[in-house]
Design goal:
Distance between the termini: 18 Å
Shape: globular
Order of helices and strands: EEHHEEHHHHHHHHHHHHHHHHHHHH
Oligomer: single chain
Number of helices: 22
Largest sheet: 2 strands, antiparallel
Helix content: 55-70%
Strand content: under 5%
């Protein structure tokens, strides 16, 4: 089956045969109806996830030092302080710059994106000359919206990638819903960590590249756009460069000559080189060195000293940090590799380069297990790529076995367990943040793993959710939650109705009618 990616003006996805079929030029009405269905489905999916995420807002958001520094950086940029922030009491995550002020060790990509969302709340709260705004719960809740929107954007990009791989509208919408509800994407979506934005930039840049063809005008626009998205990922997290091999491979897709390959690499690489130049200049401005990002100021420095197999074992098999423990549904990605290869072998190589690159590099990182967080945060960027393989495998099966539904139920329960309380709160109460031995036990010993600690904590405490906290206090503001409840009910029902209609259409349509 040949599933080469064609230009969207000339081809559409046949839901019966799961292949791209030419659309006659005179059949514009059919194309319009199809695009309208796609738009409605994506809007309903986005609203359904948005309302669900709002219902699980944390009572006290952004509790980790990393999130605190990133939020202060966003406020600093809005105040015109060029990233200088008041240091945390423990002196973590900042380094003294040449001007004597403290600067964060993290990139500016997320604070810059966050400031676009937080600017109006920042003005409304009237704290333009003070960092005290970061202590207001209302402002911190607004900051949670940043990664909520980023996560929903990632879901929509994933859906479109799956549609290009041959999944019909019903299947791709359902796959997006599963990714947004049954993986660590949900728990990361209510944080202010940098991984979701970096993951979106990697996914988005390669998705744009996948659509580029040999039309010169079209290629120039898409190659530059892809480079800009990838460059923003570098400004967010420098380890986005790990996906550079996949970026180079995908940008050379469908090239026939060396000249064409060099041209594509140049167009896609210009924004990336510009981002690296800006990053180097900012490092000189802050710390006086091109290679000084502030991260080297940590006690352990920058080291990739962990044996590769130790890190890989931790990311894949340990009870406290395995990706498949926190997102069991991604186990379907293992048999899904072959399914993706059959549909588009070149894109399968792209996915392999992303997944393999992050696993290889982050497994060597001295802090591979991460800190006070839920799941293997440092390899979050590979989650949507595993979801691609898992989704293709799922929907290639003629029947969905009971074991898959059980796996899905457990996968939805895991993020809910992580959302009902705050990971930092649980880990600190268990003494894992200050005790290296206990922290190591939480990775390798099942009875001390983070999910078990969350469950034990919930047995003696009430869930740490804003909705429950406001209801307990008798606040009249709890009535605001009627909005996401109503939105979830309406959008969810309309989405389910659309999915059911798609199923009926597939069962009643004949193969001959689908090929016309």
């Amino acid at each position: 089956m040949n599933l080469r990616i064609r230009h969207e003006k000339d081809y559409y996805t046949n839901p019966i045969k799961r292949q791209e079929v030419p659309v006659p030029a005179e059949n514009d009405s059919m194309k319009s109806l199809h695009q309208a269905d796609v738009s409605r489905g994506e809007i309903r999916l986005a609203l359904c996830l948005l309302s669900l995420y709002l219902l699980f807002l944390p009572a006290y958001p952004l509790t980790s030092p990393d999130e605190e520094i990133l939020l202060r950086t966003a406020v600093s940029l809005m105040q015109g302080n060029r990233g200088a922030v008041p240091p945390l009491p423990m002196g973590f995550a900042t380094k003294t710059g040449r001007d004597g002020r403290e600067y964060p060790q993290y990139g500016l990509g997320l604070p810059l994106a966050g400031s676009m969302v937080l600017y109006l709340p920042w003005l409304a709260l009237g704290s333009s000359n003070s960092f005290e705004v970061v202590n207001l719960r209302a402002f911190r809740l607004c900051a949670v919206f940043v990664n909520i929107l980023i996560t929903i954007g990632m879901v929509l990009v994933l859906r479109r990638l799956l549609a290009r791989l041959g999944l019909n509208l019903r299947e791709s919408l359902l796959a997006g819903l599963v990714f947004g509800m049954a993986t660590v994407a949900w728990t990361h979506g209510r944080t202010f960590f940098t991984e979701p934005l970096a993951g979106l930039c990697v996914l988005g840049s390669l998705a744009v590249l996948q659509k580029a063809d040999q039309n010169p005008a079209l290629s120039v626009r898409r190659l530059l756009l892809s480079g800009l998205i990838f460059a923003w990922g570098i400004l967010t997290r420098l380890d986005t460069l790990v996906a550079g091999a996949a970026f180079a491979w995908e940008s050379g897709r469908n090239t026939r000559t060396v000249r064409d390959l060099v041209k594509r690499w140049f167009l896609a690489g210009v924004p990336v080189l510009a981002a690296l130049a800006c990053l180097a200049g900012y490092n000189v401005y802050r710390f006086g060195s091109v290679v000084s990002t502030g991260y080297e100021d940590q006690a352990e420095g920058v080291q990739f000293a962990t044996p590769l197999l130790i890190g890989l074992h931790g990311f894949l098999f340990t009870p406290g940090r395995s990706l498949f423990v926190f997102s069991p549904i991604l186990l379907l990605a293992i048999p899904g590799v072959r399914a993706v290869w059959r549909r588009d072998s070149r894109f399968a190589v792209t996915a392999f380069l992303v997944i393999g690159g992050y696993l290889a590099v982050m497994s060597k990182w001295q802090n591979w297990a991460g800190g006070s967080d839920w799941g293997p945060r440092h390899i979050f960027q590979i989650t949507p790529w595993l979801a691609v393989a898992a989704s293709v495998y799922w929907f290639e099966r003629k029947r969905t076995g009971t074991w898959i539904w059980l796996l899905l139920a457990v996968s939805v329960g895991m993020p809910i367990l992580g959302l009902l309380t705050d990971a930092v709160l649980v880990i600190r109460e268990a003494g894992l943040d200050l005790n290296p031995i206990a922290k190591q036990m939480s990775v390798y010993q099942p009875s001390r793993s983070v999910p078990v600690l969350h469950f034990e904590w919930l047995l003696s405490h009430s869930p740490n959710l804003l909705l429950i906290d406001m209801a307990r206090q008798g606040s009249c503001w709890v009535a605001l939650f009627l909005v996401p409840v109503t939105l979830f009910a309406v959008s969810g029902w309309r989405l389910v109705t659309q999915l059911r209609e798609g199923t009926i259409a597939e069962r009643t349509a004949s193969p001959e009618s689908g090929a016309d």
